[in-house]
Design brief:
about 100 residues; about 60% helix; globular; mainly alpha
Length: about 100
């Protein structure tokens, strides 16, 4: 669950890294709803793998069409990949690789 106090009071919190980072917002500091839903899916704790799978499909195919294009799937995967990489880059900025990997 989103902890708004933690997000605004601790700039290193996961919430701040995800929801306040300029990478994930437009220039007017607003979120793109489609991207925000994808981001929420990445950071959500699901009750079961089945629920996670269903929610993922709803995000990939919100109109519940019989088929979707390869371009739609690739756009979705690119967004998730970008989020995952950027979140981790922000989270582990200024740390050595050995401390991140706990070597």
């Amino acid at each position: 669950m989103l902890d708004v106090d933690e997000m605004y009071n601790n700039e290193k919190s996961n919430f701040a890294l995800v929801y306040l980072d300029d990478t994930f917002r437009s220039k007017d500091k607003r979120h793109n709803v489609r991207k925000l839903l994808r981001l929420g899916w990445l950071t959500c704790l699901f009750r079961s793998p089945e629920e996670q799978k269903n929610e993922l499909w709803n995000l990939i195919n919100p109109s519940m069409s019989e088929s979707i294009t390869k371009a739609d799937v690739l756009d979705f995967v690119l967004t998730l990949t970008t989020f995952a990489v950027e979140i981790n880059k922000s989270k582990f900025k200024n740390q050595s690789i050995s401390s991140v990997l706990q070597i």
